[in-house]
Structures are given as structure tokens and as C-alpha cells.
Specification:
heterotrimer; A alpha/beta; B mainly alpha; C mainly alpha; A: alpha/beta; four-stranded antiparallel sheet; B: 2 strands
Chain lengths: 259, 304, 399
């Protein structure tokens, strides 16, 4: 059974067809890459999968279950975690606080008991904090644990965001441009990280990115979107050398590079 | 309670509501203008009116100026307050969230109320003289109407037409351009800052007109138009919401409708309900916001 | 996830990040502890002893202690609005109705049902929470500015319609609300109010330090991020309404039994604006600041502060407490003769000006001003810039 199955999904905003009959699947432990020029509908697709947008037609299935109408927070509870294109963190709070907030669903006391100060809430709070620290250690972010998110540089926030989404305990990770703002070397490093994370946490990953070398190196399967439709799909090498993709997305430079 | 009596009461309520509603319409025009200009809910709009009223009262009654001079003084005071609000509160908060600015304008209103309390503490009963003392009863319907109320409606008409014409003139169009595309307008040489001052100035004048015209209906106290006997802030906002916060003709129409809805609370059938007017307004506002949050009298264009 | 393997999968941070110096490991010296202890003792004396004339050279009269109780009650009201405005980012211009409903519910339980005060407080808290939740549920679809309008209309509606129902509220004559047995006199009632404030402060602290508070901080800033963290945004917004209503109900109950006869017209729009003043000037999301701000405005409102500033310092009456100081600084003269502002109007003018200054110049409010002292008192190094706030973000319009 596929972890994620997007079934001929369409979404219209007014007269604009942002996505048109898009189908996509990601199997257990797979890394699926999505490429495509700006405005191709990649982030819109993520918004449909996570529940911020309701598709006009089509279905989203998670492990065989139809989740097309499920609210965002319930999808998170199922194990769908995502990052945002422009950093989805609570900026006014610290890095560690973000990781504690992201563990919301794993916190085991009732919010009212927490307010009343039940003894179990104190113990649980310690556990939540420790687990946050552990994840930060893991991603080598412990030095900035007590820094306010708003005070940190953009490149670092991309990594903090991955830590935060890991704290939601996902099975399926949707990464929206995890490599934005990174040079080729850093992007290569990020690729290693993603492969390691998949292995360590048993993750299925769907990621949008513009670094074609990164996407083709780590992905098992790649989709290329253009104008809201799937232009090409297949093994990374197949997609990379697909003539339509080369023309629509990679431009002349890339075309010569491939040639 | 028979149908005939109900109809009579309804007729009177509609006439009184329209007359009272014209004050709300004036306030609503100011609210819409400011919202279009600064994206701000101006909670000081009604207080522009009270300040204008207090100033006019001081000039005419306490200092014995002529009525026109007093009105001019009152409008000047309202205008000054509007410009000061823009300079001292709205401009410094231009990058703050809109709710913060809302709290700021509420602070302006409260400060104005404080000053009124302080300056007019020793004048226990204040009444603004009417422009004309006449009154008559509308034939058939039987609604009592004062000439002062008719003047208010007339002024509303003149102001509406004047605003419509102004927004078709070059400076009016410049204001609209600046409101819609501030950066681009700055590039073509329209000063957004001056436009903001102009917007707040006009809004304050509208408030002042509403205050000076509605003052003579009853005795007034500090905060008269905000939470006093002549409260027009909430009805004004409701009218503006009816107009989708952007249509000026919608604001006028909305003001009249809100005036009538509120008057329905005076019907005999409602006499067992305490505070029936407040209840009707609350229910009406909730109804609009939940059913048609985009407004009703929005019109086809937002131009005038 | 189980058993995290701590082998590092990412290289160390190589970017230039200025990590703020951790304050851990700092322990004040002996002199530091003595100094802090003395200030703590002074504060305790100010709150616990001075008002009831223990170890005090001053005399606090019966009328004055009632004003001090009111200051404590206002502090609870301010904390209530802070939950909604500060934590959840929802503005309420009808908060006087929240408090008023609690007041009448409590008075009704004690006077009409002849039941005890403690039950009445519980009923008032439940009532406050229930009505706030209903209002919240109705207006969940509205945000920001439009929600402000609804609360404004709700406040007027409650004041004129709900509080006008004579059978429940006693109409214009008001509703008697006797003080609980054992707390009839002003001094003991003051301690009762302080006790409730302590409980509310504890709950507020727990709120901010547990999952509900973190959820509110996230959804206030970015509802989309909050939802993707698995937070049910609507449910937690309603929780904020319920907590705020509960606090307001307690404040209302205490206010009713404080006044002993509660009148509907007490809860007018001006009171709602006063609550906004108290919380914003006090400093949103800063509970110490909100308490100080609320007490400040209550005293200002009731002229006690102005009188205190205007009296004679040397005399043993609190009315004249700061008098000499006042004469020395010509504070009295500034207010009364210089500007011609009679004492009772100082609050009306000073308050809004402070509000505007807070919004435009000092966004952290009183809370930020006292933050260095507060941190020093809790054993940190004294840092003049501690707790700096760059902007008052009441709420961003989520349209």
C-alpha cells in the first residue's frame, strides 16, 4: 500500500486552474521529488495534501484512507508533517519552545489539567523538554536552543524547521524547498541529512526543490509539474533528460548541461 | 394591540429612523473613508463629532459667537483633532497590526472624553441651540419631525453629492490611487502622506458635521456620540459594515437602514424587552457579519 | 518515534550565529541575596501589611482599603482580558459584559438562592466561561477588526438588555450581594481578593507554561503553522475564551460582593476601554505588568493615587501619604493649578495618553519597565535591557 496517494486532483481558484488532474504516489520509505518552475502549483499541491486547501476534484489518500476533507491538525495526528516555503515556525518564541509546541499531539495531559497544574503535567513537561533537546542535539542545533527564531539567519531556520516537523512525529514528511537559500555544497549536505533521517526515522519523504542535482540524487521517483499539470514523471534520470522538462523548466543552460 | 396601531407605530419608526439614521450615515461615511485610506477601524470617528459639538457649543453659548462662526469653530476643532490623530497616532503606527491601530484610535477617543470631562465639568446641563426651532407632524403617518432633523437630512444629501463629485475630481482620483497602490502612486508623484492627512481631515469634518447637527436633539455630556445619549459609533460602524467598508453610497443607505432597525425597538411589541434597541442592533450586526460579511450595499463600484 | 539514536547526522552549525550569553550558573553573592531579600520584604510589606495597618506608620482607612480591594479585583479583570488579547490575540471591547455577567450571577446565587459565597464564585466563573465560549463560538468565523465590532455590540447589548432584566438584576436599584461570612469588613475582604488573585496568577502561569499556552502562542502568530503542528486552532481559541471568561467571572463575583449592591450601569463601555488601557499599558503577555497596570488604573480611577500624591507625607494618613513628596516635586501644583485638572479627571486624561505612548513608543508597557527588577529579584544578574519588547503586536488581522 502506498503511504500517500493523490488521485487526479484538481483545484480551481475562481477561473484559475491551479492544479489540473494531478496524480502522485509515494510508497513506504520512498523519497519523491517534485520539480517545476515557479507557479507550477507545487506548493498548492502540498496545501491540498495537508488540508489548507480543499481540492475541487480528486482525492488524497493516506495509507489507503481518504483524507480529502480532514482538517489540517488531524492530518498531522495521522503522521503527515510538513515544512513551509517561507519557514513555518513561531517566530516570537525560541527554537526549543517551537519543538515543544510541535510535540503538541504527543503531550499526554489534558490542557485544562495543565492549567490547573496537575502533578502529571509537570512530569510530562519535563519529558517534552527533554525530547525537544534530544531532537535538537540530533540535528546539531543545541547551541541555538534558547535563541528566538526571529533572531536567527534564514539558512539555519530551514534546519530548525526540519527539527520542528520531526518533533510532530511524522511518517510522511512533506518538505517545501528545504534547500532554498543554500549553495551547491550545502544542498549536497542536506541530501545526506535527508537520507540519514529517512533511515533513522523510517520516513517517507516528498520534497519540492529547485536544486535539480539534489532532487535527482536522493529521489527514488520524480514528478515535474508545469502549469498545474504533471509534465513528466519517472526515475530521476528519465525526468531529467525528458525533452519537455528540459524545455519548460530547466531553460537553455540546463539543456546544454544535459546534452 | 391591533394591526392598525402597529402600522402607525411602524410608520413613525421608519420616519424617525431615517432622520436619526442620517447622523449614522455621516459617521459611517467618515469610517468608510478612513478604512479605505488606512485600513483602520477608526474608533475616534464619533469623538471627532463630540469634540466639534463641544467646541461649537462653547463658541455659541459660552462665548456668544454667531451661529455660523460657532459651527466653523466646531468644524475647525474636529479637523484639528483628525489631523492630530493622523500625525500622532496613525502615522507612527503605520507598520503595526491593524488591531493595534484600532486600540490607538480608541485611546484617542478616550483622551478626548477625558478632556471634555475636565473642561466642561462645571457646566452641568449642556444643550446646543437648534438652527431652527420649528417642528411639524408628517401628515397621514403622524411622525413628529423637527426642522433640525430635516436640515440634517439635507446636509447629508449635500455632503454625499459633494463627496461623489470630489472623488471624480483629479485630487479625488489621486486619493483613490494612493489608497489602492501606495507605492506606485508615490512613484508618479502623489504624496501618500498628504493623501493620508487629507483623508483623515475629511473624515474628521464629517464627524464634526454629524456632531454639531445631532447635538441639539438632546442635552449632551462628554463622550456624547461614542457612548452618551447620542451614541452613533456602533450604528455608524454597522452602516459601514453594510457598505462592505468601502462603498460611500452604501454607507449612506446603511446609515438610514440602521436608524430604522434601531427605531423598531421603540415599538409597543418590544416594550417588555429592556434595552430593545441595543438588542436589535447586536442581532442585526451578528446577522450581517455571519450571513453576508462582504456587506449588502456594496454597489458596483467603490468610486463614490 | 522510539529510541532516538544520537549519532549526529548533521554537521555543526558553521554560519555566524551570535548565541546570547546564557545566564545559567550565575548565583548572586551574599550581599546580593541580602539586597534581594530586603526588596522582597519591602514588597511583601507593601502588599500584605501596609493596607491593613500592620507594622505601618500610616493609617489606611475603611474607604481606602475598599479601593485597594478594587485594585486587586481589577488586576484579575486585567489578567482575564490578557488571556484573550495577549495570548489568543482576540480583541474584546465588551469585556465589561464578561465581568458584569459574573457579578450578577454571583449576586443572584447569594441573594435569591440563598446559597453560599464559595458556590457563588464557582457559578460566576462557570457562567463567565460559558458566555465567553458562546460568544467565541459565534464569532469564530470573524477575526480581527470585525470581531472587535461584535464584542462592542455585545457589550452594549449586555449592558442595556441583559442587565436591564429587573427580575434578575434588580433593575436600576441594583442587586444586593452580601459579603461572605468572615470577610464582612474591608480588611479581611482585601485578603480574600488577594487570595483569589494569587490563584488566578498561578493558573495564568500554568497556562503559559503548558501545552495550551504554547498552542495559543503559535496560533496567535501563525494559525497555519499552529495547525501543521497538530493544534486544533478553533478548539484552542475557544479554550482561551473560556479561560478569559472564567477569570472575568471571578472578578465580577468579587466586584459584586465588594460593592455589596451591584448596578447594571457599572458595566458600561467606558469600563471596557479601561480594561484595554490596563492590559495594554501594563504590557500584554506580561502578567506582572498587567497586575501593576490594572492596580495603577484602579487607584487612578478612584482618585486614591492622586489624593495620595496630593496629601502631606509627614502625617500618618494614607490620604496624605505622599503629600510632602508632592509638595517637594510640585506634583500637586502641576495637576491642580498648573494645568487646572481637578484630581478626579487626572486618570481620564493620563490613562489614554499612557496608552498612546505605550503603543507608539514603549511597546512593552509597564511590564517591560519593571522586567529588569523582576529578573533581578528572582536571582538573575541585573540587566537594564532585560525583557525588551520591540513591538506591541495585539493581533494581526487574519483575513
Amino acid at each position: 500500500m502506498s503511504v500517500l496517494e493523490v488521485d487526479s486532483l484538481s483545484i480551481h481558484f475562481g477561473g484559475i486552474k491551479a492544479l489540473q488532474d494531478v496524480s502522485l504516489r509515494a510508497g513506504e520509505w520512498e523519497i519523491v521529488g517534485i520539480i517545476g518552475p515557479n507557479g507550477a502549483g507545487k506548493t498548492t499541491l502540498f496545501n491540498c495534501i495537508t488540508g489548507f486547501y480543499e481540492p475541487t476534484h480528486g482525492k488524497v489518500r493516506y495509507r489507503g484512507r481518504d483524507i480529502s476533507r480532514m482538517p489540517v491538525h488531524q492530518r498531522t495526528a495521522l503522521g503527515i508533517g510538513r515544512t513551509f516555503q517561507n519557514v513555518g515556525l513561531v517566530k516570537a518564541t525560541t527554537v526549543l519552545e517551537n519543538l515543544m509546541t510541535a510535540q503538541h499531539l504527543q503531550v499526554e495531559y489534558d490542557p485544562w489539567l495543565g492549567i490547573a497544574g496537575s502533578p502529571s503535567s509537570f512530569a510530562e513537561e519535563r519529558r517534552v523538554r527533554e525530547r525537544g533537546d534530544l531532537i535538537l542535539d540530533l540535528l546539531n542545533l543545541d547551541a541555538v536552543a534558547h535563541e528566538r527564531v526571529a533572531d536567527l539567519p534564514y539558512g539555519l531556520l530551514k534546519r530548525v524547521e526540519i527539527a520542528a516537523v520531526l518533533a510532530t512525529d511524522p511518517d510522511l514528511l512533506l518538505l517545501d524547498e528545504p534547500g532554498s537559500g543554500m549553495g551547491p555544497e550545502e544542498a549536497h549536505e542536506l541530501g545526506d541529512t535527508l537520507l540519514a533521517l529517512r533511515k533513522q526515522f523510517g520516513l517517507t519523504i516528498v520534497m519540492i526543490d529547485h536544486h535539480v542535482p539534489l532532487v535527482t540524487r536522493v529521489s527514488d521517483y520524480v514528478y515535474c509539474l508545469n502549469f498545474g499539470e504533471v509534465l513528466a514523471q519517472g526515475n530521476p534520470d528519465v525526468v531529467r533528460s525528458h525533452p519537455e522538462v528540459v524545455r519548460a523548466y530547466m531553460g537553455e543552460d540546463a539543456a546544454t548541461e544535459v546534452a | 394591540m391591533n394591526v392598525g396601531q402597529l402600522l402607525t407605530e411602524l410608520g413613525i419608526a421608519v420616519v424617525t429612523g431615517v432622520l436619526q439614521g442620517s447622523v449614522y450615515a455621516l459617521v459611517a461615511l467618515g469610517i468608510v473613508l478612513v478604512y479605505r485610506g488606512s485600513g483602520v477601524f477608526n474608533f475616534a470617528q464619533a469623538e471627532f463629532g463630540t469634540v466639534g459639538l463641544f467646541a461649537a457649543y462653547a463658541a455659541v453659548v459660552l462665548w456668544g459667537w454667531s451661529y455660523p462662526a460657532g459651527v466653523a469653530f466646531g468644524l475647525g476643532a474636529a479637523l484639528a483633532m483628525g489631523l492630530l490623530t493622523e500625525r500622532l497616532v496613525v502615522h507612527p503606527l503605520r507598520n503595526a497590526s491593524r488591531v493595534t491601530v484600532l486600540v490607538g484610535t480608541a485611546g484617542v477617543a478616550l483622551a478626548a472624553v477625558g478632556v471634555q470631562f475636565w473642561r466642561f465639568n462645571e457646566t452641568p446641563i449642556m444643550t446646543m441651540p437648534k438652527i431652527d426651532d420649528g417642528f411639524f407632524v408628517v401628515p397621514v403617518i403622524g411622525a413628529p419631525v423637527t426642522v433640525q432633523q430635516l436640515i440634517t437630512v439635507g446636509v447629508l444629501g449635500v455632503v454625499s453629492v459633494g463627496l461623489a463629485l470630489f472623488f471624480r475630481s483629479p485630487s479625488g482620483l489621486a486619493i483613490q490611487a494612493a489608497q489602492q497602490e501606495p507605492v506606485a502612486s508615490e512613484l508618479v508623484g502623489i504624496s501618500v502622506r498628504r493623501v493620508s492627512m487629507l483623508t483623515w481631515g475629511i473624515a474628521a469634518l464629517l464627524g464634526g458635521i454629524a456632531g454639531i447637527l445631532s447635538g441639539p436633539y438632546t442635552t449632551f455630556t462628554a463622550g456624547f456620540l461614542t457612548f452618551g445619549a447620542g451614541r452613533a459609533l456602533l450604528p455608524g460602524f454597522m452602516a459601514a459594515v453594510l457598505a462592505g467598508m468601502k462603498s460611500m453610497p452604501g454607507a449612506v443607505l446603511g446609515g438610514l437602514v440602521v436608524g430604522v432597525v434601531e427605531q423598531l425597538g421603540t415599538l409597543t411589541v418590544m416594550s417588555h424587552v429592556p434595552g430593545a434597541r441595543a438588542m436589535l442592533l447586536f442581532a442585526f450586526l451578528l446577522g450581517i457579519l455571519l450571513l453576508r460579511p462582504q456587506g449588502i450595499f456594496v454597489g458596483r463600484t467603490a468610486t463614490a | 518515534m522510539t529510541a532516538i539514536d544520537t549519532t549526529t547526522v548533521l554537521p555543526a552549525i558553521d554560519e555566524e550565529v551570535t548565541v546570547s550569553e546564557p545566564d545559567v550558573g550565575f548565583r548572586p553573592g551574599r550581599a546580593g541575596w541580602v539586597g534581594r531579600g530586603l526588596v522582597w520584604a519591602l514588597l511583601a510589606w507593601l502588599v500584605l501589611a501596609l493596607p491593613v495597618n500592620w507594622f505601618s506608620p500610616f493609617h489606611v482607612g475603611v474607604a481606602d482599603i475598599d479601593v485597594l480591594s478594587l485594585a486587586v479585583i481589577y488586576a484579575i479583570g486585567g489578567l482575564s482580558l490578557n488571556v484573550l488579547l495577549g495570548y489568543a490575540g482576540q480583541i474584546s471591547l465588551g469585556h465589561q459584559a464578561f465581568v458584569g455577567l459574573g457579578a450578577f450571577a454571583s449576586a443572584y446565587v447569594v441573594t435569591n438562592l440563598q446559597l453560599g459565597f464559595w458556590l457563588a464564585v464557582a457559578v460566576a466563573a462557570a457562567f463567565g466561561a460559558a458566555q465567553a465560549t458562546v460568544l467565541g463560538a459565534v464569532s469564530l468565523r470573524l477575526t480581527g477588526l470585525y470581531f472587535a465590532l461584535v464584542t462592542l455590540a455585545y457589550g452594549t447589548f449586555a449592558e442595556e438588555t441583559l442587565f436591564g432584566i429587573a427580575a434578575i438584576t434588580g433593575g436600576e436599584g441594583g442587586k444586593p450581594a452580601a459579603r461572605p461570612v468572615g470577610f464582612e469588613d474591608g480588611y479581611s475582604y482585601y485578603f480574600l481578593c488577594l487570595g483569589f488573585l494569587a490563584v488566578i496568577l498561578w493558573l495564568d502561569r500554568r497556562l503559559t507554561r503548558t501545552k495550551a499556552g504554547r498552542a495559543l502562542a503559535a496560533l496567535r502568530e501563525n494559525p497555519r503553522v499552529a495547525a501543521s503542528y497538530g493544534i486544533n486552532v478553533k478548539a484552542y481559541t475557544l479554550l482561551a475564551f473560556a479561560v478569559s471568561g472564567m477569570f472575568a467571572g471571578v472578578a465580577g463575583s468579587l466586584m459584586a460582593h465588594h460593592d455589596e449592591v451591584i448596578v447594571g450601569s457599572t458595566f458600561d463601555f467606558q469600563l471596557a476601554l479601561l480594561f484595554i488601557l490596563m492590559t495594554v499599558v501594563g504590557g500584554l503577555r506580561d502578567r506582572v505588568g498587567v497586575v501593576i497596570g490594572s492596580a495603577f488604573f484602579a487607584l487612578l480611577q478612584e482618585k486614591l493615587l492622586v489624593n495620595a500624591v496630593g496629601g502631606v507625607f509627614g502625617s500618618l494618613h494614607l490620604d496624605d501619604f505622599f503629600g510632602l513628596l508632592g509638595e517637594l516635586l510640585h506634583v500637586d501644583g502641576i495637576f491642580a493649578s498648573g494645568l487646572g485638572i481637578p484630581a478626579e479627571f487626572v486618570g481620564l486624561i493620563v490613562g489614554p495618553i499612557l496608552l498612546l505612548l505605550t503603543l507608539t513608543k514603549y511597546p512593552g508597557g509597564i511590564g517591560q519597565q519593571v522586567a529588569p527588577i523582576r529578573l533581578w529579584l528572582t536571582g538573575h544578574r541585573f540587566d537594564r535591557h532585560a525583557g525588551a519588547v520591540t513591538e506591541v503586536e495585539v493581533n494581526d488581522v487574519r483575513a
